[in-house]
Amino acid sequence: MKEYLVDAIVLKSVRAREADRVVTLYTRQMGKKRAVAHGAEKPASRKRGAVQPFSYSRLLLRRGRDLDTVSQGEGIEIFPGLRQSLEGLATASYLAELVDSFTPDEDPNQAIFDLLLDTFRILGDGDQSNAAWAFELKLVSLLGYRPGMEACVLCGSPVEGDRVRFLPEQGGILCSGCLPGAGRVLEITRGTLESLKALARWETRRVHRIKIDPSSGREIKKIIRRFTEYHLEKAVKSGRFIDLVNGR
Ligand SMILES: [Zn+2]
Asked: 163 CA to middle of ligand 1, Å?
């Protein structure tokens, strides 16, 4: 089979020599995949729109010796909402970068594909923070690092009280008995914990309805940053992610 069809979200698309573009795709059928679209920069090129960053397209790929090539392309969705503001584009490129950095090549994962597609669809609907936080929590869970937020992650006891201790390095919340010597804990309110659970659990298209006050927002930002940094870095041993997170 020399040619094959994929449904792909364009994570990255860079101009290459002549009028080519090198694209990094997240495909429904084969997971992450790089390909080259020859001549895509020519004004008359029919595949031009289909290989732009953050497009959802159906592409006909042809096996190549090095990179496979895009023979034909047709845009399915361009997510106009995320293109309306710099914030939308910045969030989209951050999320695309996370998927690019933390998924292996050619390892299909339908849930990650759907998460990315659903999240791109809602970027542009008001505040993007909820969408980005929910995406990160769901992505780390899909990669095998679901945060433990129901009971103490070390002993399973219920965690009482208005202040809750979260230890990213242990993967979630801790009871007072397990606390001593546990390391650098982050203290958050019960309300923040409930918001985190909702972000992790609610369907992507509904997460913007979760009401989060500014002080919880700051706690959530800290927790997600430490948690994803720790687990994703451990998963891939990539210094690039830290720069990415710190620069956000
Ligand atoms: Zn415990």
From this structure: 15
Domain end position, chosen among 46, 64, 79: 79
Residue 244 has pLDDT above 50, yes or no: no
Distance CA 31, CA 6 (A): 10
User: Distance from the CA of 237 to the center of ligand 1, in angstroms?
Assistant: 29
How far is ligand 1, taken at its centre, from the CA of residue 27, in Å? 41
Q: What is the pLDDT of residues 169-195, one digit of tens each?
A: 888 999 988 887 767 889 999 999 999
Amino acid at 209: R
Distance between CA atoms of residues 35 and 84, nearest Å: 27
Question: How many domains, the chain?
Answer: 2
Instruction: Please report which confidence band the pLDDT of residue 214 belongs to, taking 50, 70 and 90 as the band edges.
Output: very high
Residue 43: give its domain's CATH number: 2.40.50.140
Taking the centre of ligand 1 as the mean of its atom positions, its distance from the CA of residue 155, in whole angstroms, is 4
Domain interval for residue 210: 127-147+181-246
pLDDT at residue number 246: 43
226 and 132 assigned to the same domain: yes
Look-up of token digits 């998924």: 103
Tens digits of residue pLDDT in 48-58? 899 999 999 99
**Rounded distance from Cα 12 to ligand 1 centre (Å):** 43
Sign of CA dihedral 200, 121, 231, 103: positive
